[in-house]
Structures are given as structure tokens and as C-alpha cells.
Amino acid sequence: MPNTPHPVRGPRLIHSRALPLRVWLVIVLVAVSSIGLLGSSLAVHYAMRGVLMEQVDEELRSSAVGWTQNPEIYQSGVVRPPTQFSVVAITPEGLASFLYDDGSRPDFTELEVGAPPQTVGSLPGSASNDQWRAMGAVNESGVIIIVGKNLSSQRQLLGGLSAVQLTISAIALVVMALIGAGFIRRALQPLREVERTAQAISAGEIHRRVPYWSPDTEVGQLSMSINIMLARLQESLESAKNSAHIARDKEAQMRRFVGDASHELRTPLTSVRGYVELYRSGATKDVDLVMDRIDAESGRMKLLVEDLLALTRAEGSRLEKTSVDLLELTLSAAASGRAAWPGRGIEVVNDTSGIPIVNGDPDRLHQVITNLINNGLKHGGEEASVTIRLHRDPAEPGRELIDVIDDGGGMSEETASHIFERFYRADSSRFRGTGGSGLGLAIVRSLVEMHDGTVKVASKEGEGTTFRISLPQKMGPRPSLPDGGEAQATGDHAVTGEPEQEEADASRRG
Length: 510
Prior knowledge:
By secondary structure, the protein is α+β, with helices and mostly antiparallel strands.
């Protein structure tokens, strides 16, 4: 059976024809440099032209009061004017004497006598169509003297200068392109290495790791976060060797994470390339706009790196557990939220009969509450407000409950079922265009589970969203106030933790 060729798929064909990002960056560098060199060359050209014209004008002024006043050059025919000069003398009676060079002759018909030097052309039928610089003056005898100088030598000089500038600019552009290509290749090498490593790990080489770079750079932080995450996931795989099912699940989880991280990293890079192609296609000539967009996309990549690092720390760090007063903790988180979101409503309501105390890390729990406040205010809409409610439920004995409630736009059941997944973003306006990385709620779930707690979400479109955190109770003495926390009044529900105030709050709510 004869072999039939496989058709080439469209996307792969387009990808094979597309130039790499580093090539477009070199093109932009050369284009911007060309504009700069062109501008400097034009400035030098016109400055040199001005200097040459000023020299010619000075010669004409000197000639108008000098040798052109000698009558012998008009009578004997022996004395000739200097090379490249032509002279016309017109007596008061209208008699004209002409002294021309052997080449072209200037056209003095439009020349204004007594005016500054002007540039004129040659008479029709002249040997060449040269340009002349000429001026006219009247001497004491009433004779009109018109003198002109041929500008062919100046034109040749400017032409030679332009050729030199063109040669130097071409050499400079080639050198800048080569040097720029080297620097760009070197700058993009870490990203290519990250992509190659991620692809290898996604293909099953789970022993591969991203090379180490300085943690002071975004790529260095990303590589460190990915390596830590991969090491822990690999340890989990090795510890589950006796269960093939668990091993397959962990490997799939690791591949999804690496694939998602690689995709999220490639997204801002694709945007950078898009703006470069936009500039190349001529759709915009605003270099500053293109560079601003590239800077904005690099900022989004930095946000992704920081959230990846935060998730890695949340899943890998040890908790410094102590007795935590949830009332004081939520008041502190609400105060931080008001500072970050001035003018937005953030309220704390304590519906417990006593002091809600749990055993946990106050800094990590503060981060959980802060993340949920920011999530409600950011995605709920510009008019959304947040209420933090502390309460207990007989259906969950021995548990302290924290509800973070926003009155924003809410979300669908489908969205709510995936909200705690890493890198998940819904298609609704609640999550699009806000600049998030899709890791904030994943960090919340990880920290809550480390405290032996659970976090759930209930939402309805158009009515708002409620996140409920359930933590084990701990009966004990009242803990000290965490750093930065203050008992503050929150609107109509002033929460202080005192029994009398709680009774007053309860009566108002009733």
C-alpha cells in the first residue's frame, strides 16, 4: 500500500514560519537605532549646509564691495572673475556688462537688488543645471552690480558628507544588531531553559530540575519555586511507591502544575511578542507605547512569580502555632484591609458567646483573612463591601467558624466548584481583567488545611459570595494581641470582645 503524505496542520505551519522573539527584539532595536541615526545625520547635514552657505554669503558680500567694483574687468576682457563666479554690471543708462564662466549661467531675472543673498537656478540652455548663490547691490556711481557663485562644489561636499554618514550609520547598525542579538540571546536564555525543562518534566522526566539563577531576579525566583515544588511532589511520589494509583495521581498533579506554570509564564511573553509584531507591522509607530506595554507584561510575570513563591512557602513552611484570638485577628486584618482599600466597607461582626480561640500561626491566619478580603473587594465590584462574621454552629461542635461575606456580583456553581484550583480563572467579569495570577485562593486553602481546617464557598450570581473557614476550637487563656492589631469599631457593629458590648450588639441585631 503506497505511503500517503500526512497533511501539515495549520498552526504548526504558522509556527514554523514565525520568527523567534529575539529576532523581533533585534529588529525593534535596529529600527529605533536607525531613527536616531537618521535624525543625527539630518542634523549634521543641515548644520554643515548652513555653515557652507554662510561662507558663500560672506564671499558674495566681500565681492560686492571689492573686485566687482573694478571697471577693468568689464572693459579689457583680460581680467576674469574668480572661478565659479559670474558678474553682471548694469549702468544707470541701462547698459549691461556680463562676465560668465564657461559652464552654466545663473538666472538673475528674479533676483531682488539690495536683498540678502538668494539661491537661484541656471538660465535655460546652460551647459548644466547648477544652483547659484547670488546678491545684487548699487554702488556710489549708480551702477547695479550682481554677483553670483556656483554651488556645485558645496553640493559635492555635502554629497560626500552624506555618503560618509550613510557608511558610518550602516556599520553602526550592523555592530548594534550583532551586539544586541548577543545580549538579547543571553537575556532570554534562562526563559528558554525554563521552557525546555518544563517540557521535559511534562514529558515524564520528573528528575529534571530548572537550573539555578540568582533569586534577585524573577526567573531565579520562578526556578526556585518550581524546583522546590517539584522536589516535594517527587518526594510524595517516592513515598507512595506501594500504591500505583496514588503514584499516578501525584505524577499527573505535578505535570499539571508544571504545564500550568509554563503556560502562565508563556502568556506575558506572548503579549510582549505581540506588541513587537504590532510595531513591526506599522500599526503603531509609538515606541514608548510599545515599551510601556512590554513593561506592563513583565510586571504581570513578576506577580506570577511572587504568587508561585508564596504558594511554595505556604505548602512547605512550618507553622509557629500558638493560641490565637480570632476576634483580635480579624480586627487586625480588617484594619489592614481598610488601609489598602480606603473608602470601601470592611466590617467585623462577632456572634460568638465567648472569645473564639484556636491553635494556629497568627501570621498565616492573618494572611488567609487578608487574601479573602482582597478577593471580595477586587472581584466583587467597585461598590462591593466585605463583612467578617465570627460564629459557631451546633452542626459543627468544637469548631470556630469565620465567614468572609461580600455583596458583589457573585459567581456560578460551575465557577465555585473550581475556585480553589491553581491558576483557575473564570470567564465572568468577576475574574477577568483584574491582573490576578489565579493562586490567591489556592494559597488560602493550603494554609487552612495546614491548620486542620476546611474552607468552603457559597455564591449566587448577583447576590454575593461567602467563604466559610472552619477551624478546631482551643479552650485556653486570652492570647496577646498580634502585631499591628487593634480593636476598632466597624460601622454599626462595634466589636471589642467585651460581654457587655456583645449583648448590646446582639440586641441591635435582634
